[in-house]
Each structure stands twice: as C-alpha cells, then as structure tokens.
Amino acid sequence: MNKPLKWLEWAKQIQAVAQTGLAYSRDVYDLERFEQLRALSVEIMREYTNVETELLTALFAGEDGYATPKVDVRGVIFQENQILLVREKAEGEWSLPGGWADIGLSPSEIAVKEVREESGFVVTPTRLLAVLDNLKHNPPGPYHVYKIFIACEITGGEAAEGVETSGVQFFAEDDLPALSQIRNTDEQIRLMFELKRHPEKAPVWD
C-alpha cells in the first residue's frame, strides 16, 4: 500500500471542499471564500509540482458540481495464460487497455470501447474482477480514482496500435514489461493473474 503524500492529500481535500461549496453555496461571501480555498489548493500543487498555474487550474481545479472520485476502467484479456498489455505513447510504458469512463456509457461498454481503440481487438465483457481505490494502491496523483477491472474475451479484430498506444502484446506473469504504475501497478497485474487462476473467487474491492 502506498503511503500518501500529505501535501497532495491536503491539496485534493481543499479542492474538493471548494468545488462542492462553489456548487451549492448561494451566499456571495461564502462563494468568495470557496474561491480562495480553490486558489490555495492550486498554489499548493504549484509549489510542489512546478506545473504552471494555468494548467493546474484547468486540469486539477477546473471542474464544478459535487466533487466525486473519477472512474478508470481497464479491460483484462488473457490468451494462453498471458495478459494483454498496450504500450502508452505518453511514457513508453505498458498498461491494461482502458481509460477514463465516458458519460453515457456503462463500465462494460467503456471496457469494450477502450480495448478496441487501444489494442484493435473486439471483446465481450465476461466478469467483474476488481474495484480498487487508487489511494490505496497506485502512486500519488492529482485525482482520487476508482479503478474498475473487467475480464473480457476476444471475439474479433486483430492487434493494432491506437492513437494513444504504440504496441500491443501478450505477456506472461514472469515476463512483465515496465508498467505505467499510475494506470496499473505490478500488484494489480499479478492480482489479475491470481483471479484468472481462481475464477471461483469473488471480485476484489476496497
């Protein structure tokens, strides 16, 4: 389990309080205070990350409405005891195909969409494997994320790179490549192998 960075957790909590307050408060003075809190959260992130204030405001503090965790959906596909991974163009490391959930699509529909876009394969979802909280498993990041892992079976298509991927390959458990840890950790990939070996086990969740 990863030990959270206190400054990052504080910044995210301040941002969440500010965002929710701005969504529901009607008092002009309270709104001003919540704007100050949001600006403070951006200032904390700016101090420790060296990311420009404008970009932080857009990515980290640019949402409105009640603050909730983001949802990341990953498709888990096995073939002859090897797991399907795609190489991310952004950093050249590997991950399960997947990404942020889109409005209007269910988790299983997201899994199908992301696998097709990132690997070229057409799949059918078969089983929910895990719902994990990134605060408990992944390296520290700017967002609080729930990660949903869905088992899928290939029904068509062929291996093909996507807009965000530069490689598509199956890997054995004892021969995993460098993983994009913010997307999926070694521990999470090995959990997928464990659930593959023991399909009778219930889905894992935090």
TrEMBL record:
GO terms for molecular function: hydrolase activity. Its cofactor is Mg(2+). This is ADP-ribose pyrophosphatase. InterPro entries: NUDIX_hydrolase-like_dom_sf, NUDIX_hydrolase_dom, UDP-X_N. Keywords: Hydrolase. The keyword Hydrolase applies. Residues 68-195 form the Nudix hydrolase domain. It comes from the Bacteria. PANTHER family: ADP-RIBOSE PYROPHOSPHATASE YJHB-RELATED (PTHR43046:SF16), GDP-MANNOSE MANNOSYL HYDROLASE (PTHR43046). Pfam families: NUDIX, Nudix_N. The keyword Hydrolase applies.
